[in-house]
Design goal:
This protein is an alpha/beta fold and 306 residues long. It is built from 10 helices and 11 strands.
């Protein structure tokens, strides 16, 4: 079952009754003119986004959300995700898998990173091709990434990819603090990162300990690793909104709704059509098996264009 994503962009108070999340929204009215009150089964919730200073979540609600492996995202005054809350224990074999992850030899981690980079470049090429753009050397690069990516083909591909993805008159530069649509990309990547971190925890892995990323101040290095091949799915959503003329100078409700629907986006994984959230779960599970020596490589998705 696909877990639900709940977004709170207006004042709300969230509490718990009978294992249900009870949501009171004082500024919204029900059909009788009273304060709007809705409920949602805790077990059905996968991601909660808190995007208003007047949102209150009871401690019991947070406790049950984490017990059910939900990820809670908080946003800053610019309405961009700034914090992520995850359960400490998400799998019954967590200690055993932590040890396998920690003991993973460097050659294995380098091979896993090469596979990750190759799939990212492959997906970038698929998106450019679908949009009728030149794919340059991307296909060749995706097939020739070596262990550890010593030639840094990921960076070379990124330079070409960003140059081709958006219209030339946009003069786009990928920069976290740059002009739109960087803001939309940031938002989508933050959602993908939260989904990746949640999937890793659910598979008994430590999202801090990466196979490539290793910033000492980054608590989600492994999530940043495994989400790399998923970035083009965010890029595709942003391109689609731009094609439709949706204003991305300020991220409105429609833009956020589209980006928050990424978990349900259809992809192909293991030659099967599945929602992106399910693909992330399979990626995380396959990575755990790689660390335990049960599989040779990590599973990643491809686009499922109509």
């Amino acid at each position: 079952m696909i877990k639900r994503t709940l977004y709170f962009g207006s004042p709300a108070y969230c509490s718990v009754k009978d294992e249900q999340l009870v949501i009171k929204q004082p500024e919204e009215r029900d059909m009788f003119g009273g304060e709007r009150v809705t409920t949602a089964p805790i077990e059905d919730i996968g991601v909660v986004v808190l995007d208003h200073p007047r949102v209150t979540v009871s401690h019991r609600a947070l406790e049950l959300l984490l017990e059910n492996n939900a990820a809670v995202i908080t946003c800053d005054r610019r309405h961009l995700p700034v914090g992520l809350l995850l359960p400490l224990a998400g799998h019954h074999l967590q200690a055993e898998r932590f040890r396998a992850q920690i003991d993973a030899p460097k050659p294995l981690r380098k091979r896993l990173w090469a596979r990750t980079v190759a799939q990212k470049i492959h997906n970038q090429a698929d998106l450019l091709e679908e949009r009728g753009e030149d794919v340059g050397h991307l296909r060749e690069w995706s097939r020739t990434v070596r262990s550890g990516d010593p030639k840094n083909l990921e960076a070379q591909a990124a330079v070409f990819y960003w140059k081709e993805l958006f219209p030339a008159d946009l003069d786009f530069r990928r920069d976290r603090h740059g002009d739109p649509p960087n803001n939309a990309l940031n938002y989508g990547y933050a959602v993908a990162r939260a989904l990746a971190a949640r999937a890793l925890v659910s598979s008994g892995l430590l999202p801090t300990l990466g196979i490539h990323h290793h910033n000492r101040y980054n608590a989600y290095c492994l999530a940043d690793d495994v989400m790399e091949p998923y970035r083009p799915f965010v890029d595709a959503a942003v391109c689609e909104m731009m094609d439709e003329g949706i204003d991305l100078n300020e991220l409105g409700k429609e833009a956020k709704r589209r980006l928050l629907s990424l978990p349900t986006e259809a992809v192909f994984v293991n030659e099967e059509r599945a929602p992106l959230a399910v693909a992330l779960s399979r990626t995380a599970a396959s990575l755990a098996r790689c660390f335990e020596g049960e599989e040779e490589t990590i599973v990643y998705p491809t686009f499922a264009f109509e």
